[in-house]
Specification:
Elements (H helix, E strand, L loop, with lengths): L7 E5 L3 E6 L6 E6 L5 E5 L8 E5 L1 E8 L2 E16 L2 E13 L9 H19 L3 E3 L9 H5 L3 H5 L2 H4 L12 H4 L12 E12 L2 E11 L23 E9 L2 E9 L6 E2 L11 E2 L5 H16 L1 E6 L8 H14 L4 E5 L2 H4 L8 H15 L2 E3 L5 E3 L3 E6 L5 H21 L13 H22 L7 H6 L4 H20 L1 H12 L19 H22 L5 H24 L1 H4 L8 H4 L1
Parallel strand pairs: 13-20, 16-17, 16-20
Antiparallel strand pairs: 1-2, 1-5, 2-3, 3-4, 6-7, 7-8, 8-9, 9-10, 10-11, 11-12, 12-13, 13-18, 14-15, 18-19
Helix pairs in contact: 1-14, 9-10, 10-11, 15-16
């Protein structure tokens, strides 16, 4: 049975939007007044025959921009697979429709601002990774769902969803306030889902991997680090691995998230900006809140910190270890593993050192297991909370190894693997497993850093390759460009979409218009011209070598000097967010 309506039609008239539920046994129609913005229920007979009709797959929500309200609907979807006999969908295309029939009420400046805000919304919608289901709550883990009350089961999908992972929660705020229309509201998560039907030793099972990105303290790589005052960590992702075999269900959950105290790493044109630990705040308050909430949600915490233990990352590792020591909480244990040092010169086999270190703890934590009759045979007692600097590349490698170890135990318990058999020996399944984890890495990396993940050649093949190193270099260059010259726009897009910034309809002043200092245009032009003249002087030699040398030196020194000035003032030349104050991002 659908918890929300699955088959919908959108009818558009000059006065109203009508969203018709076409599921069997219902006559419900959602009516949205395009003038008053009032949302209510009506019946099919109220839909005018002159309405323009089109099929849609769900309502993502509504948002207010300069021109007024906009309705966002899902126009295309792609089936990912069936999870526990429930269809899981990826939303692949959207439409953003204005309530207003004309834009004549806007000034030229307001028109341009409205266009920019629309570009931001469409940018977020173009980032791959929005998933939903009309019959299953994908915002919760199997273990959370199994430990709910009968009252929880009676709630609407929107009301009972884990708000940490509902990316359209702000867009659905009007629906949340009216219980009678919540069957039209689909909670959507952002992250990654893969579902595969597999076979080992002639036994069939479904294997799924779900990564849920938190919408609290969401953002892009360099503009959102650490935690906020509520203890929400940047780039927090809950990853669940699920097995469904002959009615038995097993799951293993891990989390990742930024180092949970107050620190920043602002882009400044340097390849790797130096991380800065905030000095004017009490780190332990937010730190305590973070781990209190994690313990409530997941139980015991094993922190696996993969940052470098030398160089610019060293102070972060030292501060993290010290704060956990000061926490004095037996529920949180800390393991530091210098990933780059241990695995240098392609020694990736040394990752087994970390896996062996935490093996006994992982066995104690167990995993979630339910038999065919719905009896809970085992619960997962804690999680591994892994992090590196970005919580992307190194983190995903370690998570895939820990998940494989848990999967080995689950498949043996369910009788899929014989005694003594290893997952690594099952070539067909191993390929599916590795590719899914590599795809998970790419999805999370594109959503946070703007490019695919690094080190995915190891995740896919179990080996580090020269081609993998080349691709990592290419992705690193793209990350550098995006982090410095387009991430301000990306951060603004996320803040607008999630409701961290609200647009006032028809406002007179706009944060989008920042007066540009002359040096931001003049210095790059001078540098390019000077460098070009230096090359020209080298190619077109003067009458004497001394004359040529003088020209080359002059233009060379000019280009280098201008470049040095730009680099020194690097923070002024990068693309910075405009919609949320800097203090909120620190």
């Amino acid at each position: 049975m659908s918890l929300v309506y699955e088959n919908l039609k959108l009818h558009i008239t000059p006065e109203r939007f009508y969203v018709e539920a076409c599921d069997n046994g219902t006559e419900d129609v959602l009516s949205i007044d395009r003038v008053s913005t009032e949302v209510s229920l009506t019946v099919k007979n109220d839909i005018p025959p002159s309405a323009i009709t089109r099929p849609i797959h769900g309502i993502l929500g509504t948002i207010r921009l300069v021109a007024g309200m906009y309705l966002i609907v899902i126009t295309k979807k792609k089936k990912v697979g069936d999870l526990l006999q429930h269809a899981i969908w990826k939303a692949s295309d959207f439409d953003v429709i204005s309530y207003k029939k004309t834009m004549l009420h806007l000034t030229d400046t307001q028109l341009q601002d409205n266009k920019t805000f629309l570009l931001m919304i469409n940018h977020i919608l173009s980032v791959d990774g929005f998933y939903f289901s009309t019959t299953y709550d994908i915002t919760h883990t199997l273990q959370r769902l199994a430990n709910t009350s009968p009252e929880f089961q009676e709630m609407s999908l929107l009301e009972r969803a884990d708000q940490r992972f509902v990316w359209n929660g702000h867009l659905l705020r009007e629906f949340a306030a009216q219980p009678e229309i919540q069957k039209f509201a689909i909670p959507v998560i952002h992250g990654f889902i893969a579902i595969h039907s597999c076979s080992i030793n002639g036994k069939y099972f479904d294997w799924a991997l779900i990564s849920r990105r938190s919408c609290f303290r969401a953002g892009v790589r360099y503009y959102v680090r650490g935690i906020d005052s509520e203890g929400h960590a940047a780039n927090f992702v809950e990853t669940e691995q699920i097995i469904h075999c002959s009615g038995n269900k097993a799951a293993f959950v891990q989390t990742r998230g930024s180092i949970p105290f107050f620190w920043s790493q602002r882009p400044n044109l340097k390849y790797k900006p130096k991380p800065q630990i905030s000095k004017a705040v009490n780190h332990m308050d937010g730190f305590q809140r973070h781990f209190d909430s994690q313990i409530i949600s997941y139980g015991k915490q094993i922190v696996v910190n993969l940052v470098n233990q030398k160089g610019s990352e060293k102070p972060l590792e030292q501060a993290f270890a010290e704060m956990i020591s000061n926490l004095g909480n037996g529920m949180v244990r800390y393991f530091a593993f210098d990933f780059h040092k241990e695995c240098s010169r392609m020694r990736w086999d040394r990752l087994q050192i970390l896996v062996d270190q935490v093996a006994e703890i992982q066995d104690d934590f167990g995993y979630f297991l339910v038999d065919t009759e719905g009896r809970i045979l085992m619960q997962q007692e804690g999680v591994f909370r892994s992090n590196c600097m970005d919580c992307l590349d190194r983190t995903n490698v370690i998570q895939s190894l820990l998940a494989r170890r848990s999967l080995q135990a689950q498949l043996q318990r369910l009788g899929v693997l014989h005694v003594g058999q290893r997952i690594e020996e099952q070539a067909q399944f191993e390929k599916v497993y590795k590719n899914a984890w590599a795809d998970n890495a790419n999805a999370c990396a594109k959503q946070y850093a703007g490019t695919g993940a690094l080190k995915t050649d190891f995740t896919r093949t179990g080996k580090r390759t020269q081609w993998g190193l080349i691709m990592d270099g290419w992705n690193s260059l793209i990350r550098y460009y995006k982090n410095n010259f387009s991430d301000g726009f990306r951060q603004d897009s996320i803040d607008l979409f999630l409701g961290n910034y609200s647009v006032e309809e028809g406002y007179s002043t706009s944060p989008l218009h920042v007066q540009t200092d002359w040096k931001f245009l003049a210095l790059p032009i001078i540098m390019v011209v000077a460098f070009s003249m230096c090359i020209i002087c080298l190619l077109m030699a003067g009458d004497t070598w001394t004359e040529t040398l003088a020209y080359v030196l002059f233009w060379g020194i000019s280009s280098i000097g201008t470049g040095a000035i730009i680099l020194y003032n690097g923070k002024d030349f990068v693309d910075t967010p405009k919609l949320v104050q800097k203090e909120k991002l620190d």
